[in-house]
């Protein structure tokens, strides 16, 4: 999920499309709404064919996290990579770091 203007879409697609963990890219432009609107998150859930409890939203903007949470999506407030890795490991989504 990326908030972007139409002019930025091609650059975003080129940046992320070749990453093996990325299975799809949804932009605000194509969804017709923006974070933190409830419609944005509801549309994303429909497009990825998942229920809110099956998803996790990571962002550095508290208002966007609030929007996701209002849609029932678990959230992580991004501060730095190590903090996110630790929170993902605590949720069983990554193995804990050794060392």
Automatic annotation (TrEMBL):
Keyword vocabulary terms for this entry: Hydrolase
Keyword Hydrolase: yes
Alphabetical list of InterPro entries matching this protein: HAD-like_sf, HAD-SF_hydro_IA, HAD_sf
Superkingdom classification of source: Bacteria
GO molecular function: hydrolase activity
NCBIfam families on file: HAD-SF-IA-v3 (TIGR01509)
Entry protein name: HAD-IA family hydrolase
UniProt source species: Paractinoplanes hotanensis
Organism lineage: Bacteria, Bacillati, Actinomycetota, Actinomycetes, Micromonosporales
């Amino acid at each position: 999920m990326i908030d972007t203007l139409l002019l930025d879409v091609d650059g975003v697609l080129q940046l992320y499309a070749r990453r093996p963990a990325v299975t799809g890219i949804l932009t605000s432009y194509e969804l017709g709404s923006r974070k933190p609107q409830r419609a944005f998150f509801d549309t994303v859930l429909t497009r990825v064919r998942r229920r809110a409890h099956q998803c996790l939203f990571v962002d550095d903007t508290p208002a966007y996290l609030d929007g996701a949470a209002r849609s029932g999506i678990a959230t992580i407030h991004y501060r730095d990579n190590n903090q996110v890795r630790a929170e993902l490991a605590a949720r069983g989504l990554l193995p804990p770091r050794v060392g």
